[in-house]
Amino acid sequence: MPDGASPLAYNSTWQVRNDAWCSLEESSAQLVLAGAQRRPLEELGETVAKLLDVLGPIERFWAFPGLPAFGKVRRLFAAGKYDRFAALVRGINRALATDSFRTGQAWDLGAEDEALDRITHPMEQARTDRPYFEVLIVEDMTEQQEHSLREELRRWRRPDDAFIYEIVVVPSIEDAIMAARLNFRLQACVVRRRFARRSPYDSSSLAQFVDSMIAEDVMERSPDDRAQELARLLARLRPELDLYLMTEMSVEDLAGRLSHHFRRIFHAREGSLEVHLSILDGVAARYRTPFFSALKNYSHRPTGVFHALPISHGKSIVESHWIGDMIDFYGMEIFLAETSATCGGLDSLLEPTGPLREAQQLAAGTFGSRQTYFVTNGTSTANKIVVQALVRPGDLVLVDRNCHQSHHYGLMLAGAMVTYLDAYPLNHYSMYGAVPLTEIKRQLLALRRAGKLDRVKMLLLTNCTFDGVVYDVRRVMEECLAIKPDLVFLWDEAWFAFARFHPVYRPRTAMRAARTLIEQLRLPEYRERYQEFLNEVGAIDAADDEVLLKRRLIPDPARARVRVYSTQSTHKTLTSLRQGSMIHVTDQDFSQKVEDTFHEAYMTHTSTSPNYQILASLDLGRRQAALEGFELVQKQIENAMRLRDAVDNHPLLSKYMRCLTTADLIPAEYRSSGIDQPLRSGLPNMIKAWNTDEFVLDPSRITVYIGATGIDGDHFKRGHLMDRYGVQINKTSRNTVLFMTTIGTTRSSVAYLIEVLVTIARDLEAQIIDMSPAERAAHERAVQRLTSASAPLPDFSGFHSSFRDSPVQDTPEGDVRRAFYLSYNDSYCEYLTPEEAAQRVENGEQVVSTTYVTPYPPGYPVLVPGQVFSPQILAFMRSLDTPEVHGYRPDLGYRVYVDKALEIAATAHAEPAPDGPPA
After folding, report:
1. In 10 A of CB 67, how many CB atoms?
2. What is the per-residue pLDDT across 215-232, written as a single tens digit (0 to 9) for each?
3. Phi, psi (5° rounding) for residue 773?
4. Looking at the whole model, is its pTM more than 0.85?
5. Helix 612-649 / helix 747-770 crossing angle, nearest 10 deg
6. 714 contact partners, CB below 8 Å, separation of at least 6
C-alpha cells in the first residue's frame, strides 16, 4: 500500500490487508537499515505505525497470524526491537503470500525468540496436500478460554484427516457478520450461547461491513432466539457456511425448533469431539465429487473394450506410429477416462441413477435450485431444452429481441408466437441495455386487453446482458405475476453463473429470487400487505392499465405460482471444460406439469454419447464454487476495479480511452439510488444501488470507450489486441471493446493488459505526431465518426400480417416458425440489394425478411423471419462497417419473400387449425 494511502482508496479490505502486510515488510526492513546507519527513524516509524493501525481492526477476523501474534508484532515495534520486529513481519507476510501457513503448523507463538522459527521452521513435517479452512466461533471468551478451545480442537486432529482447520473467535453478532463478509476462508460457524450484539472493538474503519438488518431488540430475546437471528443473517450472507449450535439448554426441544437453521445442535457439556467431527464431515459433504470420483476409479481399472470408442483407455493411440504426439500433448489420464460405458460404477446422463444423479443433486444444493441438470453442449442447447419442455405451438412468449440466437431458434422450433421486447438503446455506443419493466408490463396488459393473456406462457430475458446490465429479477417476477399468476420465467444467465457466490450479486440471481419469492408469498404479513394493496388499487383484473403501469404491483399469494428456470454457461464464468452448462429449476409445478415433457426435451437435444470429461469438470466446478466461490468472485471484482482504475487514472490511456460507468450504460430513470458509480463509492453504496435500482452494472464487465483512438472496435480487437499481443476478448461495438474479469483472472494478467493498452496508446501517439496533414485529417475524420452518434438503433418493426394471428390484431406477436420454413421453397424468395430494398420501402411496399439477419457486432438479429423492413433498419445497416453479417450475402443482398409467398401464407393461415390456435 503506498505511503499515506487511505484504505478507502482500495476496492476491498482483502486488498488493503494484503498490500498493508507487503508494505509493512518493506518499511520494517527500511527501519532496520536506517537504525544500522544511524539515520533518523521518526518518519519511517510513523509509516509503520499507520500500517499497524490499518491492520489492527482486520486481523481479528483471520486465524493466521492471529491476534496473539499480531499483538507480539505491535509489542516488538513499541519496544524498539526492530530486528525481531522485521523478522516476524517478514515471516508472517511470506507465509501469507505463499499460503505456507495452510499446513496447519502451530501458530500460538511462545517466547519472542521462537516467533519467526515457529512460522518458517515447523517442528514437525506438515502435510501439504490437505485443504485448509477456518471456522468461526461466536462467543464472548477470555483470551485464555480461546487458547484452551483452540488447543482442545487441535488435539482431536488425526494424521488421516482429509482437511485441516483453525478457529476464529468473535464476541458479538456484529463481529460475526464482519467476519463472514471479510474472511473467505470460513467454511463453518459454531454459535454458542454467550455473545453480544455490538462489537467491543473500534470498528469504525469497517462500518460498511456491519449488517444494518440486525434487529435492535435482538439482545432482549432468549439466547436461542438470538442464535436463530444470527443464523438467519449468516445464511443470507454466506449460504454455503455450515452452521452449528452449542447450547446448555434442552437440545431435544431446540432440535425441533431450530434444526432448519443449523446442520447440527450440540450440548455444550458433551465436549468438542462431535463438533470437530461434524465440521470435517460438513466440509467433506461439499467436497464430494461423485461423478469425477467414479470416473477416476473407472480409469484405473483394466477393461476389455468390445464396444464403441476405440480411443477408450488410449488403445487406438498407444501403439500408433503416427499419432503418438496426441498422448504427448494431452497425457494418458484423459484417454484412460474415455469410455462409452454407463455401468461399472458410471452412469447415464439421459437416465441418471448413480453418481451423475448425485452430482446433479449436489449442484442443485450449491446453486440454490430444486433441480439441476448438466448439459454437455452449451447453454445454446440448454435454452432449447427449456423452451421445448414448456412451450407448445401457438403459445405466446415475450422475449428480449437482443437475446442470444439460441432463443430465437428455440422459439422457432417450438412454434411459439413471439412478442419481441425492445430494450433501451445506447445509441452513442451502438448497443442496447435491458428491457424496462414498463415495456414488459405494457405488452402483458395489451395481451390481456386483447383477451390473449391465457395463451401467454413465458417471459424470456437475459440476466446479465453481455455488457453487464443486471435486472432486478425479483421485482420483474413479482410485477409480472401480479398480471399473469402462472407465467413461466426463463432467465438466460449464461454469463452470470458466478453471481450466486457473492452476497451483493446473489439476490439478483434467478434461483435466489425464486426462493425469496416463494418464502415471501407464504408469510402472513405478506397477505396483509397484499390486502392493503387491493384496497388501494382494487382487483388487478379490473384495474386501469395506466394505473398498473405507474405503480409497483405485487402478486396474489393465493394464485401466484413461482415457476423459474435458469440456464448457465458454467464454462464461461466458473470452472468447467468448454460447453459445460447447467439448467437450474425452481418450479412449483415441475413434477405435476413439466417433468415428463422436460425429460423428452432433454432427450431430444442431448447426445447419447455425452463427453464424460465435461461432466466430470462440471462436478469439480461445483465443488470449487461451493468451497471457494466467495473468495474467487471477490477477487474477480477486485481485478476488475484495478483495471478500471488503471485505465481511467493513467494520463496517456485516459487521453484515448475510458471505462464506461453505470451512469453511461444505465439511464438515470432506471437508477432510483442516483449513484453513478456504486462500487467506486464504497460497499454501502453498491449495496444500496443493488437493492433499489431497476438495473445495475456488473463491475466485472469493463466496457472501454475507444472512440478517441480513431480505431473501430472490431479492428482494435483483431488488429491490435489479438493479432499483436494475444489478448482475447469477445465483444466489441463500433467504438467500444468489452473486457471481463473471471475467477481465472490474475493481477498479472491485468497488469499485462494495462501494459498492452499503454503500448497501443503510445504507438498511436507517435503515429499522430508523424502524420502528414492529409493523414491527420483522415485520422480526425475517423475520430469524429466514432465519437459522433451513429444511426439510431432500430426497434422491432413488426411481423407481416401473413405471420400474425389476424391482419388487424393489435398485439405484435408473430409466428416465426411458419415464416422460417416458408423460405424452404426457393420460388417464394428473391434477393434484393440494400438499394433495391430501400427503394421498395420508400415506395410504401412491405419488404419481408425470410431469415435472421445478424451483424457482428452488435450480435443480435436486426431482422427475423417474417419481419418487415423499416427505414430505420436499413439506415442502421448502412451505418455499420462490420464485414460479418449473418443472413446477408454481399454478392446478392437480403433474402426476402415475393408477394406470391405472402399471399399463400396469408391464405393458409386463414384456414383454422384442426385443434385450436394457429400453428
Report:
1. 17
2. 777 776 777 788 888 999
3. -55, -40
4. yes
5. 50
6. 732, 857, 881, 882, 883
